[in-house]
Every structure is written in C-alpha cells, then in structure tokens.
From TrEMBL:
Record protein name field: Membrane transport protein MMPL domain-containing protein
Principal cellular location given in the protein's record: membrane
One family name in Pfam for this protein: MMPL
Membrane topology: Multi-pass membrane protein
Provenance organism: Ralstonia flatus
Domain of life according to the entry: Bacteria
Keyword flag Lipid metabolism: no
Location in or out of the cell: Cell membrane
Domain Membrane transport protein MMPL intervals: 178-436, 584-789
UniProt keyword list: Cell membrane, Membrane, Transmembrane, Transmembrane helix
C-alpha cells in the first residue's frame, strides 16, 4: 500500500536524487553531509576512552561521605587529632564455650590484636583492647591509688594470672565498653586514618575489608566467633558485593535488549540502539579516570542510568526512522527527517536530565557531588551517541525489510482503526481528551496527590533501621551489629560533644561542672545508653583517692585535688593542651529521631551555658557525623527539588514557548515526586546520602516522556487540529515507544529489588515506580490537562474526519 502525503507529512523520497542535501538546519547539514567523518571521530573517541576505562578504579572515602563545610564537621576536623573517634572499626571476639578468662581465648585475642595493629590505616595510638597498654585499671589500695595495664608483663595464662586479670578488668571501668557484661566477649577498638599510615595515601577499604575477613577466617573456630562493625566494613562489604550488582545490570540490559528486539523484529536496529547506549557508558567510564575520578558504591548505579536513558532516546529515534522507511522513504532521508523532528525534544530532555543531576552539586557532600558530575558527563555523552551517532548509523544500515513492512502494516492498521475502531489501548487513552474522563483523571490525581502529600510529611531523614541501612537486615554485617548492640552498653553508635576552653583550663571545676550537667541532661533522653567524660572520670578517681568511700563520688571543688585526677585520666576525654573536653554519648541506635533529640539537647544546653571563653561544640563520633549529614540532607532535599523543577520548567518553556505546555509537562512530575516520597514512608526508607539523588533523577528522567509526547501534540494543535487528533498522532508516533520504554525500564530496574545490597534494592524500587508513574502521567494526565488548558481541547474530532487520521509526524518547523 502506497502512502499518500498530506499537508502534515514530509514528502516520501525513495531515492536521493529527489532530496536536497542542503535542506534542514546548519547542524543537520554539517552532521549528515559529513557522516563518515562523524563516525570516524566517534570510533576514535571510543577507542581512546575505552582504553582509559581500563584504568578506572572502585573506591570509597570516609571524608567524601560527610558534609565537610557544615559547622559540626568543621569542628570535628579541627579537633580530629585530639579525638580519635570518627572512622572506627569494632572487632568483637566472642568465646562461644566460656568466658574471656580462658588462656586459649586470650592468646587468640592477642594474635588478632597484633595483626590488626599492623594493618595499614590504623591510628595506633588510639587503638584499644585488653592487650593494649593504654587500657588501664585504677584501684584503691591500703597504700592509696594504684593502677596499671589490664594485662601486664607478668601475665602467663596461669589460674593466678586469670584471677588478677579478672580483678583488673573489674577495676578498669571497661565492662560494657571493651568487655561485655557477661564476660563472653571483648572488643578490639580500631580507629582509622583516611591516609593509610599517615602517609597521605588513600585508605583502601576493599583491601582493609579483605584483610579483616582473612583474619576472621583464620581465627574463627567452634569456640571463637568474630563480629566486625564500622564504616570501613560497610564500604568493604558494598564493594565486595558489586559483582552481584553488575550481574543485575547485565540482566537488566539483556531484558531491555530482548524487549526492544521483540518490538522491532530487527536485529540491526536493536543492536545499534543498544550499542550506542553502551558507547555512551564507555565514554563515561573513560572520562572518569582521565579527570581523576573513581566509581564508589554510591555512583556505581550511574552507568546503568545512562544506558537506560540512552535506550529510551534511542528507541524514539529508531521508531521514527523505521516508520519513515516503512512508507518508502530512503533510509538517509528518513534519518534526517527524524533528526529534524526529535532533535529539539531529545536535546531538551537530555539537558533536563543533566540539570536534574547537576543540581545535586548544591549538596555539600562530596560523594553526591561526584555522582552529579559523573551523571552529567553521561548525559553529555548521550547527546553525541544517541541523538547524533545513532541516526547517522541508521542512515547507513536502515532497518530490515520485515521491520519496515511491520511498521507500514501497523500504520495501515491504525489508519483503518481510526475509520472504524481504534486499538483498544489507544481508544481508552483517547478518552482522556474528553471533559468527563479528563475531569475524573484530574480529580483522582488530586486525591492521590493529597494523600501522598499527607504521607510524605512523615518522611524521615536518615536511617530508620538499626545497623547499616545500605545492607540487608539479615546480612553478616547487621547480624554483627545486632551482637554489639545486645552485648555492649557502650554501643558502636557514638556521639561526641566537645567543650572548648582557653588553653590549660579544661580541668577547672567550673568547666567540669558544665560537662557533668550536659551529660546528666543527655542521660535523660530515651535514646542514650550512657555517657563518659572527664567529669565522670573525676568522680570515680575522687572516690579512689578517699579510701573508696562513695560519699566522695563528686567532682572535687579544690583545683589541687582535680590536678592529680587529670594525670590519671584516659587520653580520649581531654587533649594535651587542655583546651578541649570530650563528652562521649553512647546511643541505642543511629536512627534519625535519636540523633535529632541529641542534637537538640546539646544545642539547647549550649544556648544556656555558652560564654565568651567557653563554648559547647558539636559533633564528632560516627553518630555525630551522621547527625550533621542528616541536617545537610534535610535542607538539601527541599532546595534540590526547587532547583530541579525550576530548571525543568525553564527548559520546557524554551522548548514549547507555551506556559500551558509547561504546566502539562510538570504537574505529572510533581505528582510522581509526592507519591515517591509517600512510597518511601510506606517502605520505611529514609532520605539519606544513598537515596537523596533518586527523587531528582526521577524528575529529570521522567520529563523525557512528556517532552516527546508534547512535541508532537503541540505541532498539530498549532495547525488547528483537535486535541483528540493531535493526541492520537502523538500516541502513534511516540506513545508506543513511551509505553515500551516505561514498562521495560521499570521492570528492568525492579529486578534490583532482589539485590543483596539494600540501597540498590531501594533505588531499584523507587526508580521503577517513577519510570512507570511518569509514563502514566504522560499518557493520562497530559491529555487531561491539555483538555482544560488548550482551546482546541474542547473540539472533538468530527466523525467524518475520523477516516482522515493518519499516523503522521510534525515537520521540522513544528519541532
């Protein structure tokens, strides 16, 4: 069946003699009149960046995970050398058949202590265990105060040595901190430096985690069990699990390829779409080491997002070319026609995606900023590979004859269906251009938005579960963390508040009283297990200095009594210059509510007690750093959404030059954002470093569907066509691919829900939800909004005009 051109379609040109090579825009002429040069250029870039990609490394950095410019973190970094708490590993060695007072157990503990002491990156002066000389006991004897290492040089494993060790442990004050109250396990506390051995070399978390696992494998037995917690172990487990992440990526890519092949029935065009999307990924991975970047566990998802977005845009280009070739147009002309029609929509969509990523730069967390730069590079690569290279390659290869005939047959069927009965799905969607259905759709959307907004108000910032939210609750790490929580009052979740004084005045009675008052107020919070400070140490030593009488359990008022106490106090509660006191706050967990309560209590105390010379500062410890991160994330969440929507609105207005078109494109995105936050509440997912980028990414990616649909719709509406006709043409030309890519990508990323890495599973579920809801918004809410916003929306298609509907596309001027 030959195609009869109408005033809406470009002419069918079967051979190049009838085509003006100088037609089209300057950019089109430069690209398509020099196709070979473009392909050679892309091949050279791919070869160079492909080689560079082999130099890409996987890594992580503790300091990249924290908001370095936040006042709390600035305080921590300024006094980091005096604290020794921040990036800490805890290794609990458990005796499953007895207590720690066992010679074999203690010998195993010694070997583990010695091996861990020599690991790269260990901050050795602050390392603590029963075998560390810095762990001391203090007691009252008939001669006065006495003390020494918990395990001294006279230890020989004999029953007498065990009795002495038991006494030393009980007098050390480490029960509940380094030693479990049931005496069945003890901890090796391992502070880490970001620069391995202080040499400035980056700490290799994967190597460190592997070394820890080797130690675990070497010393675990029927009687010894080892439990490890800490940021370094979390990152190490995440990096080790990346093989499984890559497996899920491979499954998703294979699934997308299979579905696209099923749709096109054409190997060559399917492979070209997939190949061009993979070329963009290669370019991205090659650029990263060139500019000094690496992939970390949080940006490992970006390459697949680049591939997914490339598949979406590539399918639109391929579909347009296939339709033109099916009508008899020469493959080169078909490629140029499609380039003209969709370049503006595609470019705007990719720019919107890039902006969605780029606004993440406002978040003062280096790992998110790196993710933003990485993803923006990927979007730039897609502009070349999928908007330019793919049409040029298809202009050489075309599509298979079977695919072209299938496209022509689908067009013929659609034309006949328009005259009699449309395809059931298209007929159903077309109902939303009518007042009753449009009004109902908008009412339902308003109800969903209201319910979603109410639910989103309960969205929490930070972790909502104990342990590492990045990993499954049944993972080895979280089982180890549960052991720590159950067996140690001084948990691994430590918040450190600091009291800054003039040099030499940290141990004055007035300052110790302040610290003691702060600790007392914090102990009243339900999330606080215990506290420790120089004030608490002073009370204990004061008892010892007065024949063990508990009547003296108070901070001495005399400075002459305080000074001897300071000489016996552990190093971590004050610094060498005596201008900083540390208050250790041991928490039940690091949930958002727990951290918020502690921050608020310390801030309130500081407001009431700060003076010109003495200041209460926050915050250090792993929980203090996480609290500062939560504060930054909370502020950034709102700021990020405002910026990404402002950018998308501006780009959409530049593209459509119609405020009505902008409203039609943006309102469905806003509904999806609100419902996504409600879904996070329902699934118990908090907003944190791992999940914060998802919402911004969903907005940027989701606008693609609306841009392609509106480009076609508006071109027909501006020619005076009815909304029903314009929407039907958009469905025939781009709607099919919108449905295809929305469902395909949604199902592909939904498979991530089975990943052992929890944050990848969370991102997969959220992205699948946003892919599908943005697709539904483009197919349902867009025509419903258009009915009320565009004057043409109220004029239905007359019956006599129905037969004239053709699956035609806008000309370049319409785009």
């Amino acid at each position: 069946m030959s195609h009869v051109p109408t005033r809406d379609t470009p002419p069918v040109i079967r051979d190049l003699t009838g085509f003006d090579r100088q037609s089209g825009s300057l950019i089109e002429r430069l690209l398509f009149n020099h196709r070979a040069a473009v392909i050679v250029f892309c091949l050279l870039v791919t070869a160079v960046l492909g080689f560079q990609a082999t130099r890409l490394t996987l890594g992580a950095s503790f300091e990249k995970m924290i908001p370095a410019k936040h006042p709390y973190i600035a305080n921590y970094l300024a006094h980091k050398a005096d604290l020794g708490q921040g990036n800490v590993l805890r290794i609990a060695v458990e005796n499953t058949r007895g207590t720690i007072y066992d010679a074999n157990y203690l010998e195993t503990l010694r070997k583990i202590n010695d091996e861990v002491f020599l690991l790269p990156g260990v901050d050795r002066p602050f390392m603590k265990s029963l075998w560390a000389p810095a762990v001391r006991w203090l007691g009252v004897t008939e001669d006065g105060l006495d003390g020494g290492p918990v395990i001294d040089d006279s230890y020989d494993g004999s029953p007498q040595a065990m009795r002495k060790l038991r006494a030393n442990v009980e007098r050390s004050g480490e029960i509940g901190s380094l030693v479990s109250p049931n005496f069945r396990s003890s901890i090796v506390l391992v502070p880490l430096m970001e620069g391995a051995d202080g040499a400035g070399q980056r700490l290799d978390y994967r190597q460190l985690s592997d070394r820890i696992e080797q130690i675990r494998a070497r010393y675990e037995s029927d009687s010894i069990r080892i439990h490890v917690t800490g940021f370094a172990k979390i990152v190490g487990d995440l990096i080790s699990g990346l093989r499984q992440v890559l497996l899920f990526f491979a499954v998703a890519i294979a699934f997308c390829t299979a579905v696209l092949l099923w749709y096109t029935r054409c190997w060559r065009s399917t492979l070209l779409v997939v190949s061009c999307s993979l070329v963009a990924v290669i370019w991205l991975l090659g650029v990263l080491p060139t500019i000094g970047f690496e992939l970390d566990p949080y940006s490992i998802l970006v390459p697949f997002l680049v591939f997914a977005i490339g598949m979406s845009h590539g399918a639109q280009k391929m579909n347009g070319i296939m339709q033109d070739i099916g009508r008899g147009t020469h493959r080169l002309v078909a490629a140029r026609y499609t380039f003209r029609r969709l370049i503006l929509a595609g470019l705007t969509a990719l720019l919107a995606d890039a902006v969605g990523f780029a606004v993440l730069m406002v978040i003062d967390i280096r790992v998110i900023q790196d993710l933003a730069i990485t993803a923006s590079i990927g979007m730039a690569a897609l502009i070349f590979t999928n908007l330019i290279l793919l049409p040029i390659l298809l202009s050489y290869t075309g599509v298979s004859a079977a695919a072209a005939q299938r496209s022509l047959r689908a067009e013929t069927d659609s034309t006949q269906a328009a005259a009699h009965r449309k395809h059931a799905l298209w007929a159903f969607l077309d109902r939303f251009t009518q007042r009753r259905w449009a009004g109902t759709a908008l009412l339902v959307a308003l109800m969903l938005g209201s319910i979603g907004f109410a639910a989103s108000l309960r969205l929490k910032i930070g972790d909502l579960d104990p342990g590492a939210a990045e990993l499954r609750q049944d993972s080895r790490y979280n089982r180890d963390n549960a052991f720590m929580t159950q067996n140690y009052a001084a948990s691994s979740d430590i918040f450190i508040a600091m009291l800054k004084t003039p040099p030499g005045e940290c141990a004055s009675y007035a300052n110790l009283i302040k610290v003691d008052a702060l600790a007392w107020e914090l102990q009243q919070l339900p999330g606080v297990e215990s506290t420790n400070s120089l004030a608490a140490v002073a009370k204990k030593i004061a008892v010892g200095m007065n024949e063990g009488s508990m009547l003296w359990y108070e901070i001495p008022r005399s400075q002459s009594m305080i000074n001897p106490i300071v000489t016996r106090a552990p190093r971590e509660v004050f610094n060498q210059r005596c201008d900083l006191l540390s208050v250790y706050i041991y928490l039940k967990d690091h949930k958002a509510d727990t951290l918020s309560a502690v921050v608020a209590a310390v801030e309130d105390f500081a407001r009431r007690n700060d003076s010109k010379d003495v200041k209460i500062l926050q915050a250090a410890g792993n929980s203090g750093i996480e609290a500062a991160t939560n504060i930054v994330v909370k502020t950034a969440n709102t700021q990020m959404l405002l910026l990404v929507y402002a950018a998308v609105i501006l780009l959409a207005f530049i593209t459509f030059r119609s405020w009505r078109g902008v409203v039609c494109a943006v309102l469905p995105l806003m509904l999806t954002s609100v419902l996504c936050e409600a879904l996070m509440v329902a699934l118990g997912i908090g907003v944190k470093v791992a999940t914060l980028p998802v919402i911004a990414l969903g907005v940027g990616i989701g606008v693609d569907y609306a841009l392609y649909m509106l480009t076609v719709m508006l071109s027909f509406l501006r020619k005076g066509e009815s909304l029903s006709r314009a929407y039907y043409q958009a469905l025939l030309f781009t709607g099919r691919v919108v449905v295809l890519t929305g469902v395909t990508l949604g199902l592909a990323v939904a498979t991530w829900g089975f990943s052992p890495i929890k944050f990848q599973a969370d991102m997969g579920i959220l992205l699948a939800f946003m892919f599908l809801w943005n697709m539904l918004g483009a197919l349902i809410l867009l025509p419903a909004l258009s009915h009320f916003l565009f004057p043409q929306g109220e004029r239905p298609v007359p019956e006599q005009d129905a037969a004239s509907l053709q699956p035609v596309e806008p000309t370049s001027s319409a785009s």
